[in-house]
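Feature request, filed as a ticket because there's no other form

It would be nice if the structure record came with a short human-readable summary line next to the tokens. Right now we just get the raw output. Example of a typical job, pasted below so the devs can see what we mean:
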Amino acid sequence: MTKRCLIMAGGTGGHIFPGIAVANELKARGWHIDWLGTAERMEATVVPEHGYPIHFCPVKGLRGKGLVNRLSGVWALTRSLLVARKLLREIKPDVVIGMGGYASGPGGIAAWSSGIPLIVHEQNAIPGMTNQLLARVASKVMLGFAGAAPYFGKAAKKCQVVGNPVRADILAIAPKSTADLPLNMLVIGGSLGARPLNEQLPVLCRDIPQLNIRHQCGKGNSESVRKAYGDNNVAVTDFIDNMAEAYAWADFIVCRAGALTVAEVAGAGKPAIFVPLPHAVDDHQTINARYLADQNAAKLVVQSTLDQQLLPILSNWLENPDECVRIAANAKQLAPHNAAQLLADACESLTERLQ
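Raw output as currently delivered:
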């Protein structure tokens, strides 16, 4: 009999693509996958493109809103719980996995109240509020970073450090043994883009002939970013469909420090200049980046001083391109290579207990 898993993930690529990595692993083991997300966010298109059926709930965020919006959010949460309970009765999953995003909250509560094993995966070094709450009722809590465990309080005893799931095609990228000029610089603003990178990188880098630049700038930003680079031969795109190809092309990467990005950069074996989002909840992106930067496996640059810090790093790498190779080797060594498999193993162990 085919086993079924409901994966809950959405909002940004940082939740969605690790979920897809787990879905692919479970599918390869013969599982059927369903997905729970929200209709207005990127999972609505990305998940079906990867071949998985998606269901929607009307939940919205509650954190940092005005009274009216918070009340509206509570109502949407209540409706979402009912929708999630109904969905669970219909698809009868053997296991539910919460990977983050708005749908994970009501979906996780619905799984717990329905007696269905719940696995929570926290990608960041500082866990989000929803996962901290769900961990109390989860069967297993899987972590991307060891430093997240103390934030779960009594639920820390359920925690297992597995790393962040990265797609197999990215993990399979062969490391470069040498780096020759010009160097290939890949700029990643995240699935939604990053305005400071879009505004400052063209000004700082457009007149450096030793760089080939490929810049992913987020939806609707291509024209302005392309103009900012001037007449230089720079490839600018809203979104990169084939991240494995882009990582393989790059000698180094300038990017935010979301958990998925940090995991993919390490998994691909690439040196990165991380520019953490300064207003991320609990400054978790800085903590994510430090995992590699503190071990000479990346560079960490504060956004407010990007214009002062970036060029010295670039100058050093252009003068000593093999430094990129050394940092890349350190990153590859620190990358978790079996996170998706470990999550799939957890699903199978939970279902075996119930048989």
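Something like this underneath would help us a lot:
The CA atoms of residues 55 and 328 lie 39 Å apart.
The two ends are 12 Å apart (CA to CA).
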